[in-house]
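Hi Y.,

Following your request, here is the sequence exactly as I used it, all 493 residues.
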Amino acid sequence: MSNRKVVVVGAGPGGLAAAMQLAHAGCDVTVLERRDRPGGRTSAIEMDGYRFDCGPTFFLYPRVLNEIFAGCGYDLMKEVPMERLDPQYRLTFGGGGQLDCTPDLAEMDRQIAELSPPDVGSLARYMDDNRIKLERFRPILESPFSSIADLMRPSMIGAAKHLHPFRSLGQELQRYFSDPRLVIAFAFQSKYLGMSPFNCPSLFSILSFLEYEHGVWHPIGGCSRVSERMAEIAEELGVKFRYDEPVRSVEMEGRHVRSLTTDQGNYAADAFVVNADFADWISRTVPNEKRKRWTDEVIATKRFSCSTFMLYLGIEGLYEDLPHHSIHISEDYENNLREIEQTHTLSQDPSFYVQNACVTDPSLAPSGHSTLYVLVPVTHQTGSIDWEAEAPAFRELTLDRMAAIGLGDLRRRIRTEHMITPQHWNEDYAIHKGATFNLAHNLGQMLHNRPRNRFEDLGSVYLVGGGTHPGSGLPVIYESSRITSGLVLKDFS
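Below is the corresponding structure, written out as tokens. Let me know if you'd prefer a different format.
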């Protein structure tokens, strides 16, 4: 393999994992990254001595990345020490009540009894059913889907009776819990895919199962530290990184890509692994007439995930009573979801998420200070919201709403601040429509209906990341790198 050249576009988590695996297999790998550091959305934002994760803050299901590290001769937990969180997170409900979610199921039942006595015992049944479901689905999430014929694989047929394709995640949870707050407590994880639980397929009930069964982890230094260490390991394995080098164009022979051009040079290779945001990169880089299936016109018909409004706040002191992760569910959650997905308007009562990481990891802020990361799910870019005009007022509304979880004095403690709106995600991070979780995960956009790992429109091009199979979320993106690296190596041999 040593004479086989691979160019990876984008040093996000999928690109980094692919670069490690391909270099370890003996390929000559170069990574082209448009920004000045590795990680993409899973990079760090550093200012005034504070360190924030830019995007993902939950580290779930380390098994996949653990296996990738082990396959390259490294031990993930030694390279990036991690702490399992308990409580995993606190859920507060606009309609009243809270849960400190813990893997201790007896303690969960004690808290559930306070919210809804008839639902005591339902969590154990949910866990037992989803343990079987994950076992059945793992082979599907770990295999490529190249055509509709792959739906007839024995693993697919074996999993079919657990699929219930026409049942939403919300309806699935209603089979276990009668209290609507508990339905949301085990279904809000669809937000990791940028979707409403009432539009998301029931398959994704495995997400909250993964949290309770396998833990919610905090890598010391943040999730961005995982990306940074992966880049260092990739370099140890011989990978060359070119930062501040966005790809400007492709050179093609027929439908085969032969090289990529940046402002600094031309990169020919035997294979190209694209980890950039799929819809943004393909429509910007590859002429429309060269694409058969994924034309601009087809992309325009696709459904995309929500976006996020972000505040990164360096504050004086530490909220010691606030857990590492807190999720506040707005009083009229279904209306909040409608505002995000259907009317594309800004909510007056949004749900939000706050990470108070310094209760676990004081290394992220100067002594006597701490970091707060605030995420509000909002609509992706449709032209309905002028963020330059709306952002200041939405910031004020968000800070007001944080009083609901006990942060009423937050404004006077802020010492430094950074904001990202959907417009910034779109323009600064090159994310199509600012849809931070990529193509939506409805049934028409999963498995073989997503852009494929061996990309069907262009020869010698492969995809990793949230825009291909299996989908969004860190463990799934790492899995995409494993599927794609396997396909590249198979095609080389």
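Residues 5-82+220-301+442-492 form a domain with the FAD/NAD(P)-binding domain fold (CATH 3.50.50.60).

Thanks again,
Q.
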